[in-house]
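User: Show me an example of a complex going from sequences to structure tokens.

Assistant: Sure. Here are the input components:
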Amino acid sequence: GAGVSQTPSNKVTEKGKYVELRCDPISGHTALYWYRQSLGQGPEFLIYFQGTGAADDSGLPNDRFFAVRPEGSVSTLKIQRTERGDSAVYLCASSLRGPPLTNEQYFGPGTRLTVT
Amino acid sequence: DQQVKQNSPSLSVQEGRISILNCDYTNSMFDYFLWYKKYPAEGPTFLISISSIKDKNEDGRFTVFLNKSAKHLSLHIVPSQPGDSAVYFCAASYAGSSNTGKLIFGQGTTLQVKP
């Protein structure tokens, strides 16, 4: 079946602009995660949704970052007043159920965000 | 602080030989560990996992070993194939009430399998 999809695959924006990154999880997966991966590093957790609610947003770096999942499926990561340090690959993952029942997460290809 | 560490940035092995990728962790609250493989321009792909109640889990050519006392795990690939060339990430998650599903990743090890 279809895996996790993310759009756009690449996004170039100017410093100070607003961006939205979209994630379509695997159908039926209730848990959705956002991670950020900088060059030479492993993915870094941002936020976890169980259904429509953010169950853990402890990884969001500051209040410029916000994410929603209004219908419990598609999620949007929103970044306001982008800074050059926000440049990274933003990864979305989903799993069939949230913890503690399963921890295997299935990742999308990511959105490469470049802030100039 | 880096709670999950992969101290070898790269590893090169000959096709048919064993590849051993290592991972160390510092937080004793971790109770579930996973290995992911990542090709360029793709997202990480789940490979194999192990619960802290086990010391070994095997799936085909891939075996993960866990040494809780040493806070160390390793991934063995036997025999290695050129298609295994990728970046390998070790990840961990928390136990019990601290478990919100978030994975803590290491920095990755780039494996190159030479024909």
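The lines above are the inputs; the final block is the predicted structure for all two components together. The first strand of chain B starts at residue 4 and ends at 5.
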